[in-house]
């Protein structure tokens, strides 16, 4: 009961922070919710332009979390807010696909529903391919979401706002089909977050108080049944408030995107060479899969057992040719095979190794977390 009361208090504090404390994104005390923007592919930019202004205006500066190869997929958006991402994804999955958005803020869900007919008509769809639900992301069953019913689950920095991260990931695992993926951005801490930070309402609202220790993600994910997390991007979070810096002390934070795959229980995959066939919309010539692997059309790439299993058993399988290897794999650029097997998993290392001199873009359109809840 105590844990339940604590979770309810956190939810109310987050809603108050984004409903009453913040007036604009300029009021944010950190950049946790506003990470470095990346170029938006043309096909996504075009989809964004089709979203009604009233929906986009309630988005408040969070970026898109859009994986590749979405045609005909069933997608669940955790923390869908006013529905902007859902209406973008609606166009990308097509009329044979489906997108479900779930959010804990009823007024945001109602805004999203209001414009359902408008968007379906604009997209030229005969029947709606989007559904909006009111509910909590750690209680998907209560919202009526069935087991093994989605190909992809996405989340843009909302898991950190939920006290019980394991319950969220457990529910995601349940609703994903075998071969399915959780593609999500979130904030992670460099150590176990102390209680004085966890109990700080502003730091919860800024996506830091509820941040997971980054090493715990792999422990929780694999305990549930996911493959090891695959790191995609990472950026260091900066704090723009001296008082908050004193509270945080030695605890550092990073905003990172990971992929988690739920694979069928099959025989272990073997190392192999893979060749990307090309043709995925927006990634026809090159597929940047994660921080470790970039696949160029027609080019053979040696991959480890873990990567081979993900590619073979997910929606990406038709996009690759697989060739088994014998005793050893060729090492690119003269490196030894053992060197090629060290996968980057630490988001702090990836962020720190990035080009620190690269200018940061304006906050609009940046990949971020929680701004969509500002009118909660």
UniProtKB/TrEMBL annotation:
EC nos: 2.1.1.137
Per UniProt, residues of the Methyltransferase domain are 71-219
InterPro entries per record: Arsenite_MeTrfase-like, Methyltranfer_dom, SAM-dependent_MTases_sf
What exactly does this protein do?
Answer: Catalyzes the transfer of a methyl group from AdoMet to trivalent arsenicals producing methylated and dimethylated arsenicals. It methylates arsenite to form methylarsonate, Me-AsO(3)H(2), which is reduced by methylarsonate reductase to methylarsonite, Me-As(OH)2. Methylarsonite is also a substrate and it is converted into the much less toxic compound dimethylarsinate (cacodylate), Me(2)As(O)-OH.
Keyword set includes Cytoplasm: yes
**Record-linked PANTHER family:** ARSENITE METHYLTRANSFERASE
Name listed for the protein in its UniProt record: Arsenite methyltransferase
**Which family is it part of?**
Belongs to the methyltransferase superfamily. Arsenite methyltransferase family.
Q: Where is it mostly found?
A: cytoplasm
- Specify where the region named Disordered lies, as residue ranges: 354-376
Q: Which GO terms describe its biological process?
A: arsonoacetate metabolic process; methylation; toxin metabolic process
Cellular component, GO annotation:
cytosol
| Reactions catalysed | arsenic triglutathione + [thioredoxin]-dithiol + S-adenosyl-L-methionine + 2 H2O = methylarsonous acid + [thioredoxin]-disulfide + 3 glutathione + S-adenosyl-L-homocysteine + H(+); arsenic triglutathione + 3 [thioredoxin]-dithiol + 3 S-adenosyl-L-methionine = trimethylarsine + 3 [thioredoxin]-disulfide + 3 glutathione + 3 S-adenosyl-L-homocysteine + 3 H(+); arsenic triglutathione + 2 [thioredoxin]-dithiol + 2 S-adenosyl-L-methionine + H2O = dimethylarsinous acid + 2 [thioredoxin]-disulfide + 3 glutathione + 2 S-adenosyl-L-homocysteine + 2 H(+)
Which controlled-vocabulary keywords does the entry list? Cytoplasm, Methyltransferase, Phosphoprotein, S-adenosyl-L-methionine, Transferase
What Pfam family is a match, any one?
A: Methyltransf_31
Gene name of the encoded protein: As3mt
Q: Where in the cell is it found?
A: Cytoplasm, Cytosol
Q: Which SUPFAM superfamilies match?
A: S-adenosyl-L-methionine-dependent methyltransferases
**GO MF terms, alphabetically ordered:** arsenite methyltransferase activity
């Amino acid at each position: 009961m105590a844990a339940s009361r604590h979770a309810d208090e956190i939810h109310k504090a987050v809603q108050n922070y984004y409903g009453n404390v913040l007036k604009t994104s300029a009021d944010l005390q950190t950049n946790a919710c506003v990470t470095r923007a990346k170029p938006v592919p043309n096909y996504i930019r075009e989809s964004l332009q089709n979203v009604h202004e009233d929906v986009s205006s309630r988005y408040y500066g969070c970026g898109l979390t859009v994986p590749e190869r979405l045609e005909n997929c069933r997608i669940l958006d955790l923390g869908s807010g006013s529905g902007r991402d859902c209406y973008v994804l609606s166009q990308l999955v097509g009329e044979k696909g489906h997108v479900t958005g779930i959010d804990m803020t009823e007024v945001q869900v109602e805004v999203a529903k209001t414009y359902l007919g408008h968007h379906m008509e604009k997209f030229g769809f005969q029947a709606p391919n989007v559904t909006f639900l009111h509910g909590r992301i750690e209680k998907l069953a209560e919202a009526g979401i069935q087991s093994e019913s989605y190909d992809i689950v996405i989340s843009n920095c909302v898991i950190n706002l939920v006290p019980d991260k394991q319950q969220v990931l457990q529910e995601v695992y349940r609703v994903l089909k075998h071969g399915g993926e959780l593609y999500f951005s979130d904030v992670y801490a460099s150590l176990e977050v102390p209680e004085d930070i966890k109990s700080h309402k502003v730091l919860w609202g800024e996506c830091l108080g509820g941040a997971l220790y980054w090493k715990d993600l792999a422990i929780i994910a694999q305990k549930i049944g996911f493959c090891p997390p695959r790191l995609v991007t990472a950026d260091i979070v900066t704090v723009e408030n001296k008082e908050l810096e004193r509270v945080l002390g030695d605890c550092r934070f990073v905003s990172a995107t990971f992929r988690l795959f739920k694979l069928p229980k099959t025989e272990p995959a073997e190392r192999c060479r893979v060749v990307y066939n090309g043709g995925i919309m927006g990634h026809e010539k090159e597929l940047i899969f994660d921080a470790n692997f970039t696949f160029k059309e027609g080019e053979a790439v040696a991959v480890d057992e873990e990567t081979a299993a993900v590619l073979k058993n997910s929606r990406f399988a038709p996009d690759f040719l697989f060739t088994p290897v014998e005793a050893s794999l060729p090492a690119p650029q003269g490196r030894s095979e053992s060197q090629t097997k060290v996968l980057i998993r630490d988001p702090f290392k990836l962020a720190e190794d990035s080009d620190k001199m690269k200018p940061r873009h304006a906050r609009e359109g940046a990949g971020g977390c929680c701004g969509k809840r500002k009118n909660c």
